[in-house]
Design goal:
The two termini are about 75 Å apart. Helix content is about 65%, strand content about 10%. The protein has helices at about 5-10, 25-50, 60-75, 80-100, 100-105, 105-120, 125-160, 170-260, 265-290, 315-320, 345-365, 400-410, and strands spanning about 325-335, 370-375, 380-390, 415-420, 425-435. Residues about 295-305 have low confidence and may be disordered. The protein folds into three domains: about 5-215, no CATH class; about 225-290, Single alpha-helices involved in coiled-coils or other helix-helix interfaces (Up-down Bundle); about 310-439, 2-Layer Sandwich (Heat Shock Protein 90). The chain is α+β, with helices and mostly antiparallel strands. Strands 1-2-3-5-4 form a five-stranded mixed beta sheet, covered by helices on one side.
Length: about 450
């Protein structure tokens, strides 16, 4: 169990490796010093005018110089905290011996207090701080003790000569010295403890800042990894889509070659299918090259649903419906069969968007009703909208990676994404993919 001394040293950070940054003299230091200077000189002249400096024999300029040098010390209180604390203690001693009435002014007492507090709060070398502060306190109390001893001797002489009157429990001069000791104990103790509190608060802020930077860096790495993983998954899906298109091209080209001489019209039809499939494959590859980055660590055992599309949404909805959630599905087609003619990549993107949105509702929302609407105009756009009537469920905040996947997938097809709470209540996920002339 640590001793009281060890606890005190630990509290003041004597063995702590952290060093408080030492700022240069800044605007706030200048403003503080100038303000203290102006107030101190004004207070000095007010005291002089009221007769409070009648027993001071030094010239007026000396009094002004003492007050001004005290204020100037505050300029370096953060830059050179221990040096300023030592100079302030020396200033207090010299002024107290030569002009005690000036040293006792409130403005100079504030200067000494701030200088000592800053020495504890801003010192980088905590062992040196402990040595300097202890030296200052011991010197000051030795000075006060000497004054107390001198005062007691004077009091004894006055008692022997019967030249004093006692109006209280204690004799006047020792009582005055004793109250001075008490006041100084509170004065110096307050400055030292206040400086320790300031240093510990600064250290805590620095640690929290370091932790925040670490957390932000880790979150950034996780986010980047999530982006890479999602893009790799999209790449696999697109690979399957393009592979299907190339396979279809090979079949159609082979058929066209076999019937080219016997049925030119059928051969032209087969070749037109080859042309259409090639254009679709080229489009998918361009999007792949434009939006995906290379990655490693691909899990090839992951189950794929690359053939999924709008036609598979009823099965997906049926899996979710009835598990404490009522899900409705509407497919609105501007042209008959438009949904079935969607490009394979877009159809898969619509399916995955609905899949992810329903998963988020089940995990993170209080909703009991969800509406899924797919709108298809094969000459303009394909749009999917998932709307629920719930609120975020407490204690289930997600990582945001699901929504990130929706946005990444939409970006692959140059889609527009609108995700967020509705003004009328509930939550909405809406993605629009351009088709035809809109592409």
């Amino acid at each position: 169990m640590p001793s009281p001394t060890e606890r005190v040293l630990t509290w003041f950070g004597v063995d702590d490796a952290w060093e408080r940054p030492r700022p240069a003299i800044g605007r706030q230091d200048v403003v503080l010093a100038v303000s203290v200077e102006a107030i101190s000189l004004l207070a000095l002249e007010l005291v002089r005018s009221s007769g409070g400096l009648e027993n001071t024999d030094v010239p007026v300029w000396t009094e002004w110089f003492a007050v001004s040098t005290g204020a100037v010390l505050l300029l370096g209180r953060r830059r050179w905290p221990l040096a300023v604390a030592l100079l302030a203690a020396l200033h207090m001693f010299v002024a107290g011996v030569t002009m005690p009435e000036v040293m006792g002014q409130l403005s100079l007492q504030i200067v000494y207090f701030v200088a000592l507090l800053s020495g504890v709060a801003w010192a980088r070398d905590r062992r040196a701080m402990a040595l300097v502060v202890c030296s200052i306190v011991l010197f000051m109390f030795a000075w006060l003790t000497w004054q107390f001893a001198l005062g007691s001797a004077v009091q004894e002489w006055l008692d022997e000569e019967d030249l004093t009157e006692t109006t209280g429990v204690f004799a006047p001069i020792p009582a005055a010295i004793a109250i001075t000791l008490l006041i100084n104990a509170i004065y110096f103790g307050g400055a030292i403890v206040g400086g320790g509190v300031s240093w510990r608060a600064a250290r805590q802020r620095a640690r929290l800042q370091d932790q925040a930077i670490t957390i932000a860096a880790q979150a950034g790495r996780l986010r980047e990894q999530a982006v890479v993983d999602e893009r790799l998954r999209i790449a696999r899906d697109l690979h399957d889509v393009v592979a299907h298109g190339v396979s279809a091209m090979g079949i159609q080209a082979g058929a066209a070659r076999r019937i080219l001489d016997r049925d030119p019209d059928a051969a032209r039809t087969a070749l037109s299918h080859v042309e259409e499939a090639s254009r679709d494959a080229v489009t998918q590859m361009r999007r792949l090259l434009g939006t995906l980055r290379e990655g490693e660590g691909e899990d090839r055992s992951e189950a794929r649903t690359t053939d999924a599309g709008v036609a598979d949404l009823p099965r997906l909805v049926a899996e979710v419906d009835g598990q404490g959630l009522a899900v409705s599905l509407d497919v609105v087609e501007e042209q008959d069969g438009a949904a079935s003619r969607l490009p394979r990549g877009v159809g898969l993107a619509v399916f995955r968007t609905v899949q992810e949105a329903l998963t988020n509702v089940r995990r993170h929302s209080t909703a009991d009703t969800v509406s899924v609407v797919v709108r298809v105009d094969e000459h303009a756009y394909a749009e999917v909208e998932v709307v629920d009537n719930g609120r975020p469920r407490h204690g289930t905040s997600g990582s945001g990676l699901g929504q990130l996947g929706i946005r990444e997938r939409a970006a692959t097809h140059e889609g527009q994404v609108d995700i967020g709470p509705r003004v009328t209540g509930g939550y909405r996920v809406r993605v629009r993919y351009p088709l035809g002339a809109a592409s």
